[in-house]
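Form 12-C: Joint structure prediction
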Amino acid sequence: MTIQEQMSAELNSAVPAARSTTDLLDEADRYSFAFLDELSKRAIRRAILSAVAVPGYQVPFASRDMPVARGWGSGGLQITLGIVGPDDVVKVIDQGDDAGVNAANLRRLIQRTTGVTTTLDRREATIVQSRHRIPEEGMPDGQVLVLQVPVPEALRGIERRQSELRRMHAEADYSRMWVALYEDYVRHGAITKSTGYPVLVNGRYVMQTSPIPRWDVPRLHHHEGLALFGAGREKRIYAVPPFTDVVPLTFEDIPFEVERIPGAVCVRCGSTESYLSEIPQQDSPSRWVCSDTDWCDRRTAGQS
Amino acid sequence: MSGAQEAALRVEGLGKIFGPGCPECVAATGPELARELCAVCGSIVACWDVGFEVAAGESLGIVGESGSGKSTALRCLAGDQAPTAGHAYVRSVEGGTADLFTLPAADRRRVGVEDVGMVYQDPAEGLSLDITAGGNVVDRLAAAGWRHFGRMRERLLELLSRTEVPAERVDHVVRTFSGGMRQRVQIAKVLANRPGVLLLDEPTTGLDASVAAGVLDLIRDLQEELDLAVVVVSHDFRVIEMLTRRVLVMQHGRVVEQGLTDQLLEDPQHPYSQRLVAAAR
Amino acid sequence: MKGTRVTPVLDVRGLAKSFTLHGIGGRVVHAFSGVDFTVAPGELVALAGRSGAGKSSVIKAVYRTYRPTAGTVMFAPATGEPVDLAALPDADVADLREREIGYVSQFLRAEPRRGVLDVVARAGVRRGMEPGRAREAAADVLAALRLDRELWQTYPTLLSGGEQQRVNLASALLAPPRLLLLDEPVSALDPANREAVLSMISALVAGGTAVLTILHDHDAIRRLANQVVLMADGRVVDAGDPAEVLAEVAP
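Section 2 - Result
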């Protein structure tokens, strides 16, 4: 063969002949288990262990590039991929709803890179990844709740400088957080934070609860499962281990209250006790429906 | 007779050098050489060998021109600067046995919250301008562990009323306040946890004469009422005369004279003191 | 002559004061020298002499507004051993001034913007009086000094020289000190007010206060003083019984 022919043959053997899309997809499916390489998973697990060892403390971690854009749950996804094993059963919700676009995409990604069973039924899940809510019945023993966190810093809006933030957490100097709560109360007659309500974890660190709505905050206190929080863009992981004190920050003489809308009832199952999502109507008052669709479905079907 | 009660604040050999420092620095600077800059290594000996005692209910002035080192010395006591040398003891901190300058950072900060209050020349330095007057006081109370809204509210209203901040402005953001009113908020904030020692750095500079007089009156009254040990730094002799009964004169970083305030004003001994007093009168 | 030997409240020996003016090449100005006298409890000693004789300087040197250049100023406090004010640490002198030594000059120290009654009452509170009691006592003293009631809420800085002088005096008289130093207490007063002040001083002395005062009026001296110290050009030229000493001097 001539040199040219030789080179041509080598090139052709390196680039396979044109194949169908399905072939290409099949090839693409050959990722390492759970998409991330083993070293990345190990790094994430180390961060998770540190986080569990120091409840409420934001552990920095080297957040990987994910097929999901920053701000769309890359942190929560990395945690789930870091801890998922072949026997796990994974549920993914978005605003409490399994059918949301974001939740559906994440679920599909996890399933395709791991082959694990996915479910819509919270009772079957071992890992629940959520963008917004804690499922209505909380987290039982053996279940891990993975939360997708937009902004992990509890003192956000109060201090900008990293050095000062580190100092405040290190010295448990949260006086400025209390000032913010004071100002809120003076201005509005109530503490109005609805998401990201600050809590004191294990009596030591003030933690950001976002994306969890205020409604769900009391569920964190002494819950039986493990809650892991991942912020991909901000590169932080933190945790609330089982049976940990999680106390919302509030003044001694002002009790912590959750949001209630008087008269709101779920139009599907009739619940007044669950977190309700509003469906605005054109010419009539808003209708309400349970945010936790799985729970609502079961109630409607007569089970629970 | 010893007379003097045990000091509420005791400072020994306080010194601050900005820069690398060298063995020549102290000898190469000072009033005789008329410089703070060390010719050998280029460091600034901002203050050196400053020592004094202040009893509860007593007030001490530190007077000198700009660059004399008086503000630097005060900032070291307030915890804003780490001194190069010296010791400082406050009676309410471990009975006066703990050297402030060797305390761990968190403890040092707590001293600033509970034992030693500093009123800055520029109120913006001692206040959060984008928070209400009440909120600024709450900052100190919360730092000392207060968690009861009602009680904090009561205390801050009491303090702001005492410093003559109008009740209707307690919930206004401090940025909207005039200089004199900001200074009053700062004083209220600093007194929140009843410190035994109060440091004042040029408390009335930049204020109109009548506003300044009001602030001085307030400080003087509070000092008597609360039995505070006060250190006032000022270049203005009227402030010194009004507030203090003893005074230190600093020049080029060193203390050149110490005496009773009226004695310094009428019978200054050191040549520099005589110049200062003559210029003021 | 006094019968019993009592420790004098004030015992001044060889007191001298010079000023070194560094600003004009270190020129030395002599205020006075070689001054000796004692003041016993319940005794009034008058310093007399023409202007510029050094009388105010002596008072200031005793009070430690001037640092004496030489000599001793032995002060016997209510309890404890006598101390030399000239050598005492500043903080101790300040304490004694607050508790035991009063000083009233013609000039008003920088005063806060507070009414006359408040200013005088505060002086009492500082001496340990309970606030309500101090206010009452202040009112009594101001009335005895014939200061117009209408002025009691006025700021002292707005008063006349003579009125300010009486406010200063009231503050000192409120809680009588062990030693009272007066620099021309009646010079700016009209006869009626002068009489009131002199009566009060007399009462104070009768009550046991030691008083060292500058007085110009020979009649007042003869009336009140147990001793007079006559000065001229910074030196003591005569001292002793007022009647004898003043007989030699033109009024």
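Section 3 - Comments
The longest helix of chain B spans residues 209-226. The interface with chain C takes residues 1-4, 53, 55, 58, 213-214, 216-217, 220-221, 224, 238, 241-242, 245-246, 258-260, 262-263, 266-267, 269-271, 274-275, 278 of chain B (CB under 8 Å).
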